[in-house]
Amino acid sequence: MIVNENKAHQSLSLHKGWNTLLEAASISLGLNDSLETSNKPAAHQDRYHLFDIRKKLYRLFEHSQDRYLPIKIAERVNPLTFGSYSLTLWTAPDLETLLKLAAKYSAVISAPIRLRYHTTPQGDAELWVVNNEPLYKETHISYMGATLFIVTFSKILKEITANDKLKIQIQMVLNYFDDSAQKEYELRTKIKITTGHPIRKICIPKRHLYQSLPSSEPDIHFTALSLLRKEAEKIEKDDLILKIYNVLGETDCLFNLTGKGLAAKLNMNIRTLNRHLSNYHTSYRGVVEKYKMERALYLLENTDENMTEITYQLGFTDLSTFSRAFKRWTGQSPTNIRTNKTFKLEI
């Protein structure tokens, strides 16, 4: 299924570069004949549907039975794999600029999985890896997809910086692999991986952020970035989940927020809103819960606002209700997150 201009599918579209990487992996593993699809994009089309890429990844994994498959797929990424997106990153002046642009325009390579750029109180950079799927509904194959995304992006960072001393830490929520597999992932990718975190993150120490990049090319970067902005604008203008996030982000306090009120700001009623969101396999409540979780994590980790104020901002009636919801979302208490916010990367 090739993604067209249908608005209902913009939030589920992926750059065709992911298909290119999967096809290359299929060939290298001698599986191309069994995985080839007749649904190839026309010359002018650059997007695939999430479910098609997920299906191909699943079939590739089933045929290979290789738990290190994401590493092998990511090995073939290059400056042109994701068009203007990857070329913009490869020609960026420094790592901080690269990370900010990667997050700002991440919808171009993957609308369903997004990057959000944050800095810690210590100045370290974090790329939060978030998706559109409702909380508690991740499957093994969606986990594999998120792992492929993270491994591929980490490979891009390693290739661009050409710096063996670049220290990257990946924070994962769950670990579908055993300890030996995790250690092998670390050995092969030269990245430290930890699990048990409330959200996926790619973490870079402050000391690396302002170093010039060897592949920096100002003229090419300017041209690629101009093309990238246009691509992102096409994708984001019909992205309903992004529009909801923008409305929520402009709301100082979510206490009086209602589904009807949010739908009205989007010029529709709540039934229409939920009908559209069902195309993305989520709902108004699912999107709002995801937003509240991300907002709570940001406030707890990056500000000194007290728990009562955070509780009110997020629309909860009291601290105990917020604490229960937060623990349901993340498996951790807000107090634990706040206590550990001074954590410094040791990589």
From TrEMBL:
<dbReference type="InterPro" id="IPR020449">
    <property type="entry name" value="Tscrpt_reg_AraC-type_HTH"/>
</dbReference>
<keyword id="KW-0238">DNA-binding</keyword>
<dbReference type="GO" id="GO:0003700">
    <property type="term" value="F:DNA-binding transcription factor activity"/>
</dbReference>
<dbReference type="InterPro" id="IPR009057">
    <property type="entry name" value="Homeodomain-like_sf"/>
</dbReference>
<dbReference type="GO" id="GO:0000976">
    <property type="term" value="F:transcription cis-regulatory region binding"/>
</dbReference>
<keyword id="KW-0805">Transcription regulation</keyword>
<dbReference type="GO" id="GO:0005829">
    <property type="term" value="C:cytosol"/>
</dbReference>
<dbReference type="InterPro" id="IPR018060">
    <property type="entry name" value="HTH_AraC"/>
</dbReference>
<protein>
    <submittedName>
        <fullName>AraC-type DNA-binding domain-containing protein</fullName>
    </submittedName>
</protein>
<dbReference type="Pfam" id="PF12833">
    <property type="entry name" value="HTH_18"/>
</dbReference>
<keyword id="KW-0804">Transcription</keyword>
<dbReference type="InterPro" id="IPR018062">
    <property type="entry name" value="HTH_AraC-typ_CS"/>
</dbReference>
<feature type="domain" description="HTH araC/xylS-type">
    <location>
        <begin position="238"/>
        <end position="340"/>
    </location>
</feature>
